[in-house]
Amino acid sequence: MEARGIHHVGVAVEDLDGALDTYRRFFGASLEQRETLESQGVEAAAVRVGEGRVELLAALGDDTPVGRFLAKRGPGMHHVAYDVADIRGALDELAAEGAELIDEEPRPGLYGMQVAFVHPESVHGVLVELVSGG
Amino acid sequence: MEARGIHHVGVAVEDLDGALDTYRRFFGASLEQRETLESQGVEAAAVRVGEGRVELLAALGDDTPVGRFLAKRGPGMHHVAYDVADIRGALDELAAEGAELIDEEPRPGLYGMQVAFVHPESVHGVLVELVSGG
Q: What is the spatial distance between Cα B15 and Cα A27, in angstroms, rounded to a whole number?
């Protein structure tokens, strides 16, 4: 599978507005999109840092994926998302290479994207997201 | 300060050759540079994933920054590096914004780059590296 590049770095935060302010002041970041995804228990803000993108993720409650991450590890880097042209093909190729897929099929993500996650146990401790259509 | 983009995502690994193999097979990564930096106690391999870059970091011993990170948190995402045009100016601007700098002056990093780190306490739990000349 050939990823086209890093779509974004996902970061779990306790305070979404505070993090937005920090990224603006420190790195000249600009808000690209902000969205609440109730089904995932997350409020997200995508910011551009130059040509790069960081996705700031705040939990809607403790019993959500990001809430559990924050309780266990505290705020910090959460995942790396790679941009792929063909997400279904990419999942097939990863499965053939022995990757443990969290999502065997693409599912709707933030901002109308199709996404799928790969288990960190397969990728040396890094939670990987595949993104297409972003 | 205006970062130009994400220079790389730094990942701490237990097994550098194994990680290189995984990134090649899963994401079509290609090795860009590999270098041991004894002064930092690290062996690093930069790989390109499409237009993105991941820096895989293995510790040369337990009592090194990456060795301590691995002992505490296990393998996984270690830092995000932003590409800046003027690293000294960027450090001055960050200090003026209240960022806690690990390196108040740029220092030699991997592959001939000038680098400086910003404390994760200042950036919502994310260890940030500034890179210029890479």
A: 32
